[in-house]
Amino acid sequence: MAIAFTKLLEKISRSENLVDEESSQAIRFILNGEVSNEEIAAFLMGMRMKGQTISELTAFVQEMRSAAIPVEVNTEKAVDLCGTGGDRSGTFNISTAAMFVVAGAGIPVLKHGNRSVSSKSGSYDVLETLGAEPNLQKKQVEALFTETGMAFMFAPNFHPALRFVMPARRALKIRTFFNMLGPMLNPAGVKNQLIGTFSADAAKKMIHILANLQTKNAYTLHSEDGLDEISLSAYTNIFELKDSLSSESVRFNPETLGYNKVNITELYGGDAEQNARIIENIMHGKATKPQRDIVELNAAFAIHLTGIARDLDDAVKKAAKSIDSGEAAKKMNLFVKESQKIAKMVND
């Protein structure tokens, strides 16, 4: 097996692209723990320097999905809001806050996420600080979703094979293709996804990969101020997958939906404690207008993906109603209460 992997390393060292079976074989070697940390690091660096093709990345995602522990629930109309991270912007956890707004609008949410890597607070961290129990296993997640229409799937619990990759990734300390693939590995197989990315090029590649993988509806996006969210401080380049694939991005201006442009500093957060307070303030009508607006805007795009809104203007109204009616706050409180209860019942 080492010889076969060595041949693949030799091929990418010559800047030659892998065919589909070679891509699948390479990632299987890694996920099965059959190659050394040094070989994994060489592969990651080789792919980075060569540049990854859409077909290579598609094969990687397919194999990684196959290796995941599946969450077996009804995904009809469900949506995932997540990002690649890595924008180093210092904003609060916008997509996590939007999760409750979307749920408050009556849409199931199956969010996939992790602890903080490059920021002070990842989705796991802020949910934990809000009082929720984000560290749930398969059966617990399924029970939570059945009870609340919401779930958070902590990535390490559903992708155990990725433990073989972590030593090499930590040693390299640079972005690799794994940073791009994470948001496309939702264990529940959600067909509606809103994905923020660390670059416009990543957003373009990801929409093509999602199209190859029979995703139903998706937006992939990157804002011109660097955010992996739909921004209020700059234009956002958005790729769409719906009835057909949008190969070119739309340059979205938030003012077209009635939002005022803001300074990016008005969207800054802090550690998990500070970000949790911002989310609570949004849910209870005590946040600043920019904080509320950016969550409402991102939630609107997720709502629009599912087809329950006539257009984006209608989706904005549904997101606003979710907050103003208190439904978003109710969903947040329900998620906290039920996740604690389910975790305790299993632990007992």
Structural commentary:
The longest helix is centred in the C-terminal third of the chain and has 21 residues, at 327-347. A five-stranded mixed β-sheet has the order 1-4-5-6-7, sandwiched between helices. A two-stranded parallel sheet has the order 2-3. The protein is of the alpha/beta class. The relative contact order is 0.15. It is built from 15 helices and seven strands. The mean pLDDT is 94. It has two domains: 2-51, Transferase, Pyrimidine Nucleoside Phosphorylase, Chain A, domain 3 (Up-down Bundle), CATH 1.20.970; 80-333, Pyrimidine Nucleoside Phosphorylase, Chain A, domain 2. It has helices at 2-13, 20-31, 37-50, 54-67, 94-104, 123-130, 138-148, 155-158, 166-172, 177-181, 200-212, 272-283, 289-305, 312-324, 327-347, and strands spanning 80-83, 109-113, 150-154, 192-196, 217-223, 236-241, 250-252. The radius of gyration is 20 Å and the shape is globular. Helix 2 runs parallel beside helix 4, helix 5 packs across helix 14 and helix 13 packs across helix 14.
| Strand runs, count | 7
Strand % is 5-15%
Q: Please give the share of residues in helix.
A: 40-55%
Outline the low-pLDDT stretches. Answer: none
H/E element order: HHHHEHEHHEHHHEHEEEHHHH
Labels describing this entry:
single chain; 348 residues; alpha/beta; Transferase, Pyrimidine Nucleoside Phosphorylase, Chain A, domain 3; Pyrimidine Nucleoside Phosphorylase, Chain A, domain 2; 2 domains; two-stranded parallel ribbon; 15 helices; 50% helix; 10% strand; globular
